[in-house]
Design a protein that fits this description.
Number of strands: 9
Number of domains: 1
Largest sheet: 9 strands, antiparallel
Oligomer: single chain
Low-confidence stretches: none
Shape: elongated
Distance between the termini: 11 Å
Strand content: over 45%
Helix content: 10-25%
CATH architecture: Roll
CATH superfamily: Electron Transport, Fmn-binding Protein, Chain A
């Protein structure tokens, strides 16, 4: 049975709706922050949460904090893959980083259920305002052929 409104890109991947992208983004606890470090791309895993149209994560002093202080444009990617069945999806958010002002809004920093996984102290709350959100899903061959 074909699902109305389903769209595919040139390679046969399903183009996810904005609603599906938001739902999938919230469904995983860890994502990849892609930013610039010394004029080269850098990728770091971060645990995060989504609130008010933004991705929030904590970090210590370092490259991620400096990128946020500069207001860098970054990408943030989450995915889920089933290697045995060759299925999966990926969602990418793009936007500007900033350091959240928890002094101006103390409950923001205290109320978030966001705890560090790394052994260092994550003292800074970083905000990625989502300006673009896109996703793709790899479907089973039979489902792709039927829906196209």
């Amino acid at each position: 049975m074909s699902m109305p409104g389903r769209q595919f890109d040139h390679s046969g991947l399903e183009i996810l709706s904005h609603t599906d992208c938001h739902r999938l983004l919230r469904s995983v606890p860890v994502g990849r922050l892609v930013f610039t470090q010394g004029a080269l791309p850098a990728v770091r895993l971060v645990n995060f949460l989504v609130a008010d149209g933004a991705i929030l994560f904590r970090t210590s002093d370092g490259d991620k904090l400096r990128a946020a202080q500069r207001g860098d444009v970054v990408a943030f990617e989450v995915d889920e893959i089933d290697q045995d069945r060759h299925l999966g999806w990926t969602v990418t958010a793009i936007g500007h980083l900033s350091v959240a002002d928890t002094e101006e809004d103390p409950p923001l920093g205290e109320a978030l259920p966001l705890r560090p996984w790394a052994p260092h102290h994550d003292g800074h709350l970083i905000r990625l305002e989502i300006e673009s959100l896109q996703g793709r899903r790899l479907l089973a061959w039979a489902q792709r052929l039927h829906d196209n």
